[in-house]
Write a structure and sequence with these properties.
Radius of gyration: 17 Å
CATH class: Alpha Beta
Largest sheet: 5 strands, parallel
Number of helices: 9
Shape: globular
Oligomer: single chain
Strand order of the largest sheet: 1-2-3-7-6
Structural class: alpha/beta
Number of strands: 7
CATH architecture: 3-Layer(aba) Sandwich
CATH topology: Rossmann fold
Number of domains: 1
Distance between the termini: 20 Å
Order of helices and strands: HHEHHEHEEEHHEHEH
């Protein structure tokens, strides 16, 4: 089950941490982080079977953030879940810090795989899922991807591979915010009809509001996992969600909030606290 109020508060905490982290470090990608905060909150708060006190627990679910540039969001979720100290978040992107701009597993409990170069998270996740099948392990593998990285051919090889091997222990969640780098996804390289493409490759596909905690939970729960297919959850999101001047604004793919912009962003987010 999911406690919606607790889950929404977790998402807001992730957003506040991320805004502060990117401001202090002068790092980019806050828009991309804000669009997945609700997804991360549901995963870490209600879906993933993980143990902060035993990060390498053999039966843990494996989570990969393929859109590694949004790593600050995962670090924030890990801190809120007890994997790393909350105070450590202030070192993000600082000289000598192991909280790098793109998510890294080096020295960070709870991170399975370092990412940043797009198009690699899903291929690695399919290998993990196949290995789990071969070893008769019961855990699931969840990978969170950007829509823009679906331009990468390596993903479509993995999509074919996963369906062929009937990897029903694999869940791919797509952050469908329709913006990438400096333009829209459709103007860069059209993905539509996006759900039909996944279906034609042999996946079960569910579309959800990527900011509805209930819809995300229902889509990702074990109950809804199909018997012989991997699952694709297309989460329709808004880049920069919950900070009005960042929403659907491609500038916030690379900018970091400073000065009055930082104060304004935090003021908006603090209004959402329970």
């Amino acid at each position: 089950m999911i406690n919606i109020n607790q889950s929404k508060q977790l998402a807001n905490n992730i957003r506040k941490h991320a805004v502060t982290m990117t401001s202090l470090g002068g790092s980019s990608h806050i828009g991309s982080i804000l669009s997945i905060a609700d997804i991360l909150a549901v995963l870490y708060g209600s879906v993933l079977q993980v143990k902060a006190e035993e990060p390498r627990w053999i039966d843990r679910d494996r989570f990969i953030l393929s859109k590694g540039h949004a790593g600050a969001g995962v670090y924030a979720a890990l801190a809120e879940s007890g994997f790393i100290p909350v105070d450590k978040l202030k070192t993000h992107y600082q000289d000598g810090s192991d909280l790098s701009g793109h998510v890294s597993h080096k020295g960070i409990p709870g991170v399975e795989f370092s990412t940043g170069s797009l198009g690699h998270g899903l291929p690695v996740a399919t290998g993990m899922a196949l290995a789990a099948k071969i070893n008769k392990n019961k855990h699931r593998v969840v990978v969170l991807m950007s829509d823009g990285e679906c331009d990468e051919g390596s993903n479509w090889e993995a999509i074919l591979f996963a369906a062929h091997h009937k990897l029903n222990n694999l869940v791919a969640i797509i952050d469908r915010n329709r913006l990438q780098s400096i333009h829209s996804t459709e103007d860069t390289l059209s993905l539509e009809p996006f759900p039909d493409k996944w279906k034609s490759f042999g996946w079960e596909v569910v579309e959800v509001d990527g900011h509805s905690h209930e819809e995300i939970f229902n889509a990702c729960s074990n109950i809804n996992t199909p018997k012989n297919k991997p699952l694709c959850v297309i989460a329709n999101t808004t880049k920069g969600k919950r900070v009005s001047f960042m929403e659907n604004n491609v500038l916030w793919h690379y900018r970091s909030p400073q000065g009055d912009e930082y104060k304004a962003a935090m003021a908006e987010l603090e209004k959402n606290d329970a």
